[in-house]
Amino acid sequence: MQAQAAEGRLTLAPVAAAARRADPYSAHLSRAELADQARDHELSYREYLAAVNSAGPGTLISAAVWLRLAQLALYENRDEERAGFYSARIQPAELSAPQREALERLRRRLSYRALPPEMLGLGDGNVSALRVDGDDLWIGTWNGGVSRLSLSGGQAKVFREGRESLVPSTVRCIEISASRVWVGTYQGLFSYAKAGARWQEIEAFAGAEPRKVEALRLAGGRLYVGTLGHGLWRQEAGEGAEGWRRISSGPLPGDFVTCLEVDGQDLLIGTLTQGVVRLDLRSLRLRGFEEAAGGLAARNVTVLLADPPRGLWVGTYGDGLYYWDRQASRLAHYSRRGGQLGDDWVLCAVRAESGTYFGTLGGGMARYVQGRWEVLGFREGVLSADIPALTYAAPRLYLGSLGAGVSVLTEERP
Question: How far, in Å, CA of 121 to CA of 180, rounded?
Fold first, then answer.
């Protein structure tokens, strides 16, 4: 197969029944779309480059050639810069309908910049937590420890259990204060002093059977810690074992805390078995949330996201997403069946200028903006179907995935 220069125009020799191996999203296309693509061309990256480089200065490069170069650069060579260079030279009007759709997918994919595990210095692409602190992006993984990435310089520093760090591999959550970075793991709680670059294990959560820390939140100048099996804790003074107090009242909030969110003068507590619980930060009074939220029946809560002053998002493990509109005293439910989510297992959420984003297990990401929903999956450029971590620092949205590391979306405002 060779590229052909005809009448001063560089085109490609058509090959019957050739599949577009460069585009992995072909697996999601219909048979009719695949049949259209079977009439496309199949050349290697080197053959395309050789044809383009040997073309004379007066030769026009067809849009199909630029498209194939962009596809091969991105999907096979993982060269986003070159793919963007080629993509910018494509005139969509010159493409067939299937080619225009392929171009649309490619450009959507290029809107996400990949930060693979090797760039972050990690051996684990399964991200569990993300937080931005000024110029630093802190990345927690399920089994690979913590990495701190300089957003301006691109250098990564990895912290693993050992002499330079006390942080175990199983990171679950990260919280940032003015002076410290707090890291919750399944082997206890750890803090990193920014001034001295020193790690410390928090004694109250250590021991032969360390407490599994699942959630962290600063509220009212104090750190609240949610655990799996030992309930909710608050830092009272210092970092010794005596400086921490367990917060409970009767059965509330229970032993298994999954997420924490600040909502005005309340700390909202998501639990594994008791739904949402409210803690008054002034009186430390605990109360259930079902009556306030119009009968919210969800028990296994995974995500809480305040939407002041109007309401609250509640994500669940298997029952989709709820929105409590306190102004209208109305509870709305969103799900995969309703077309609002890619899956009913909601893992994370974040508010950005371009909308509110929700990460799911198996269904990619969903975006809500001004009453409209959009499910974002492979065809829209999202690099993984599993998104357990999201964080935002304008104008960039950071997505943590299971298997594909971190990706960055520079948002377009609605």
Answer: 22
Q: Which amino acid is at 255?
A: D
C-alpha torsion sign, points 176, 322, 340, 126: positive
Domains and CATH numbers, the chain: 8-110 (no CATH), 115-410 (2.130.10.10)
Residue 222 pLDDT level (bands cut at 50, 70, 90) = very high
Task: Give the separation between CA 122 and CA 144, rounded to whole angstroms.
Answer: 6
**What is the residue-averaged pLDDT of the chain?**
84
**What is the dihedral angle through the alpha carbons of 230, 202, 191, 193, rounded to the nearest 10 degrees?**
150
Distance in angstroms (rounded) separating the CA atoms of residues 26 and 382: 15
* 123, β-bridge pairs: none
Instruction: Check if the beta carbon of residue 343 is closer than 8 Å to that of residue 377.
Output: no
Contacts of 192 (CB under 8 A, 6+ apart): 159, 180, 181, 182, 183, 198, 199, 200
Strand-by-strand arrangement of the 406-410 sheet? 112-115, 406-410, 396-400, 389-393
Phi, psi of 313 (to 5 degrees): -95, 135
pTM of the model: 0.80
* 292-to-11, 68, 272, 276, 283 alpha-carbon distances in Å: 66, 56, 19, 10, 18
Do you find a cis peptide bond into 414, omega within 30 degrees of 0? no
Helix H or strand E segment including 36: helix 31-38
Q: For residue 108, what is the enclosing H or E element?
A: helix 97-110
